[in-house]
Design brief:
single chain; alpha+beta; five-stranded antiparallel beta sheet; 4 helices; 30% strand
């Protein structure tokens, strides 16, 4: 069986890609996602008054730790020596009843393989942590729109999602 898929060998068996011969390049990935909640929960998160404490500070640390553990969570990911991981949070889409928090993770490395999965993992776990920290205020929060929005470096060069600023 012949395959052009990078994680499948000629017998159809899953494998980790050999990146040993690839040149190291500067790589960057940006991922984003949102969590929507009641206005009461959003106001508590913004004010730092949530029952479990500093929601966004805790979510930032959780996202960074998650990026560092990506290879432990996703079977075909290479363990990467990250140069940096940053998490930013913005409040958006607010009305009198609900609002959203957007988490944006930026991960960078000088290495032989991409860092997209680390950025996506950081955003995912940051959002799940927000849920955990604020669930006493709103159990119906919705996590959505987790996606890669930009990548730089490597063979495919620079890519940016349409409509992303």
């Amino acid at each position: 069986m012949s395959s052009s898929l990078s994680h499948i060998d000629t017998d159809g068996t899953a494998r980790m890609v050999d990146v040993g011969a690839k040149a190291e390049t500067r790589r960057l990935a940006v991922a984003s996602g949102t969590i929507t909640m009641t206005r009461e929960a959003l106001d508590a998160v913004r004010a730092g008054d949530a029952p479990k404490g500093d929601v966004l500070g805790t979510a930032r640390i959780a996202g960074i730790l998650a990026a560092k553990k990506t290879a432990d969570l996703i079977p075909m990911c290479h363990p990467l020596p990250l140069d940096a991981v940053n998490l930013d949070f913005t409040f958006e889409k607010e009305d009198e009843f609900t609002g959203s928090i957007r988490a944006t993770a930026t991960a960078s490395i000088t290495g032989k393989t991409g860092i997209e999965m680390e950025a996506i993992t950081a955003v995912s776990i940051a959002l799940v942590t927000i849920y955990d920290m604020a669930k006493a205020l709103d159990k119906g929060m919705v996590i959505s729109d987790i996606r890669l929005v930009e990548k730089q470096g490597g063979k495919s060069g620079h890519w940016k999602a349409q409509g992303w600023v």
